């Protein structure tokens, strides 16, 4: 194989699709010029539990331009769940408008289709529903006696935690709370759906094309081959676009009913009630350690909620099983069914919230032991995954912590809280360790080669998506490297179910899976062209085509995880550092700077990888400073229903961020040595900031978000100040 | 700015042509006699309204492609607006409730302007109206008569990038790209605001503010805080804007640990 070309992997080239994005020319779901399309507006329930008793559509029907109003009374019959509380997986069916029953506030109860968006929006407000209302169950705390053990995330234990706690010299027994958070990608969920000759065509904002096609096919009970999903550009997802949700089904149903293409955009308000969220978690932690810093026990118990019609569990305890060497360990998850929509994966589901609890508790224990929190973590570092006794494929946690400490200037940190001040500001430094699984999934791609004017042009096709992650760019760089041609002779086509199947974007497997999928297709092309010539000379791709007297050639390839992968625990590791300034009178605080160190395999493109990391840090900062969705306690609706109430980080909230990548190529993870990075960035960021707040104020903030009023009202830990 | 106003002047023959009308006719290749002949045939209403079906495709060419959605027959409170976008004028029949954002996206196929919240809270729909950044989702299309609208598609020529677009590309000031047109329009207008000496929430000593202010990083962050980027590219956005403002390179904030650092970290 030829060596890396200057434009191959590892180089910080600009995003290859970037020129389209900065000119506004990249087409997102609702932007395709589909001829004859009409507009739909979905209607939401105004009760959290009960049944529709009457519907009056007469006023809405009278409006100009209204074409159709769909409710459960006239909706197409769809496939229904075969079981109670089915697991919400990315390819699950999504029946909608199938009964008068209402399970949560904001559930879709109708759809208006009209000639224009304005007409549909107005008419939707005129459809009248009457309900028989039941008392909704919306309080995690009050309904805790209904908690059950979910199928998906079973209990785990090793050793004897009671004995481990008994032999500990110092203990931490505390509970952490994280609220409901919403994904809120900037692009509203949207679809333009049409039917032609019994086939569905959907321009839809989806992270996983194949799963979306399966959901649509199974819900309408048609073969998957009759469903085409197209999403060349996706305006962010963060987990909310992993599966085709009910609005996708609604638009397709409406398009079939009226025989015209239907455009349906989920409103920002509906993105609180209809496109999932990260659930509220109560995490009870028990940690014990000996004087020398050896961990003796770690218990991580999570109480959370699911809906009354589907099951989803965010496994917060995962990180506590494997991050530190501790002989006695117990992890459990319990769920309470509530009259809220089903929660679903949001960036680093489990790790983002679980690591807040674990990495805060580790800091609390280090303080009690009077140990430096970095040294405490390093003391309990391990090269063997204690949860399954498999070796880690590579684990550079200690290196992340030490190199980060140097970069950050950790030696300037005072152990005693409040010891660093400037004027009215209390200055604190915080640290946290991070880990996130680095999965890799079977991925296929097609390569098309064309010899034109003495140059080889390659096109790579796969149903992968680029949700801002840089897929177009890293796939281009991979093809450039393995075919040994410049990047400007490579084009990449993504986001179409006609292309070879990939796992889609989610779970941090995108980069590793897509790059290896493209690599195998390129290598297959070279091997096959060599075979035709019956030679094993090291010929360029151009020479191979020329000697074969071919002006074009195409082939496919599939990459799969190796046996070695299965014998190892494969994770990315990292460390986060934060400097926070707290105003001692008001509790207002500013994150002044952050340093992140990542050991996440080969970095395919440091420029786009940096973007992934700072994006994660920004969302992690959001968890601390502002993000929370609040529920009205009687009616069960969200009272935070817009960006005016649900605050996501804005530009001024952020500070300088420096990112250090550790040079590593994890060849056990996959042949290219690539590991996931998209979710590592958010993992444990919240803890590093909360720990910095402790270092500044002596206050342990265990309830996110840490708002100024909570901070000013909190009492410092005894002996901290 | 010169504008075509068909409602004030029912007969295009009776008056002096505006600069834009002349430009349109020039682009059509109509000069001298042929121009006079053409104008005599379109006496019933203004040039722009009558002529548009004939030459929309050519004149609005690449920037404004043909609208695939047929105009609905029945609109509530129909109004007619000549929308001047990116130096071209498009006469539109609009529902009076239509926002500028929806007019751009759904009627003119100028989908570079994005709908992120439809409530003026995210900035994705930012365009420039008469040179000032405005939220097109809070602007009714009907109020734009006679105004000069610049969208992301109109910032630079077809094959060029505006310096701000180039800086966003170079500094990776975006990820998914959805908030990007709004961020860029906002950033371009922001530097003009600095030139004009407009104060912000974080400006210290407002009384002493002068024209041509060099914005600090904090000033840029504050002034860009109306544009949400959920992907979290803020730091790269700030770098891009600072580079355009100062003309000096802003270095990348990532690095690889050296072999020496790795060795030291392992052994200590």
UniProtKB/TrEMBL annotation, chain A:
Organism: Flavilitoribacter nigricans (strain ATCC 23147 / DSM 23189 / NBRC 102662 / NCIMB 1420 / SS-2)
Descriptive protein name: Acylaldehyde oxidase
Alphabetized Pfam families for the sequence: Ald_Xan_dh_C, MoCoBD_1, MoCoBD_2
InterPro entries named among the record's database cross-references: Ald_Oxase/Xan_DH_a/b (IPR000674), Ald_Oxase/Xan_DH_a/b_sf (IPR036856), Ald_Oxase/xanthine_DH-like (IPR016208), AldOxase/xan_DH_MoCoBD1 (IPR008274), AldOxase/xan_DH_MoCoBD2 (IPR046867), AldOxase/xan_DH_Mopterin-bd_sf (IPR037165)
MF-aspect GO terms: iron ion binding; oxidoreductase activity
Lineage: Bacteria, Pseudomonadati, Bacteroidota, Saprospiria, Saprospirales
Keyword terms of this UniProt record: Molybdenum, Oxidoreductase
Gene3D superfamilies found in the cross-reference section: Aldehyde oxidase/xanthine dehydrogenase, a/b hammerhead, Aldehyde oxidase/xanthine dehydrogenase, molybdopterin binding domain
Domain Aldehyde oxidase/xanthine dehydrogenase a/b hammerhead: 23-135
Automatic annotation (TrEMBL), chain B:
GO molecular function: 2 iron, 2 sulfur cluster binding; metal ion binding; oxidoreductase activity, acting on the aldehyde or oxo group of donors
Keywords: 2Fe-2S, Iron, Iron-sulfur, Metal-binding, Oxidoreductase
UniProt xrefs under InterPro entries: 2Fe-2S-bd (IPR002888), 2Fe-2S-bd_dom_sf (IPR036884), 2Fe-2S_ferredoxin-like_sf (IPR036010), 2Fe-2S_ferredoxin-type (IPR001041), 2Fe2S_fd_BS (IPR006058), Aldehyde_Oxdr_Iron-Sulfur (IPR052914), Beta-grasp_dom_sf (IPR012675)
Database matches in SUPFAM superfamilies: 2Fe-2S ferredoxin-like, CO dehydrogenase ISP C-domain like
GO CC term, one of those recorded: periplasmic space
Pfam families: Fer2 (PF00111), Fer2_2 (PF01799)
Transmembrane portions of the chain: none
2Fe-2S ferredoxin-type domain sequence ranges: 79-155
Listed name of the protein: Ferredoxin
Organism: Flavilitoribacter nigricans (strain ATCC 23147 / DSM 23189 / NBRC 102662 / NCIMB 1420 / SS-2)
